[in-house]
Amino acid sequence: DGGITQSPKYLFRKEGQNVTLSCEQNLNHDAMYWYRQDPGQGLRLIYYSQIVNDFQKGDIAEGYSVSREKKESFPLTVTSAQKNPTAFYLCASSIAESYTFGSGTRLTVV
Amino acid sequence: GNSVTQMEGPVTLSEEAFLTINCTYTATGYPSLFWYVQYPGEGLQLLLKATKADDKGSNKGFEATYRKETTSFHLEKGSVQVSDSAVYFCALIRPGAGSYQLTFGKGTKLSVIP
Question: What would the mean pLDDT of A86-109 be, rounded to a whole number?
């Protein structure tokens, strides 16, 4: 079955460390997205990519980085510059207005 | 810019009660409108959508009508079940912006008690 896979489901990071969240899709979608979800804040766009080797900043890109070397993969790195990284991170892919979301990664800084 | 405003939660209802979650939007042109649902610990699933004025989206007993004159897309269900407990997000995509970016409301948490 086609879908989008995020891993790991839970991730713990020490302060000052970088950590990379994985997102893989086999839907042949060109566009991919990363969102951050905090209680009461809804979903905020971090980065998006409409095509391989190209990506754009979203509303809250500071402290994050991405790459898009393959159509299937859009990993997100949370760097030590992100002041408050504890959150739920959702990856999505789309073709036109049809979106598919992953099941999320919960990142906790310890 | 584009924005979506939905009613604050949490909302707690008894089983079989009537549900309304209000959603209004600000956008130029004619956006497509969506309701997504998020069950605990999961990603988002599309619940229903409408792409033009006066369209009614429906799924699993939920309905929402695209009202251009009031810029609204309120979600309704006649009789909620415990299994409807989730967070509901109203969202829009504004066409012609060069990409199909979703703009979300802040979400409304619904709890249905037996």
Answer: 95
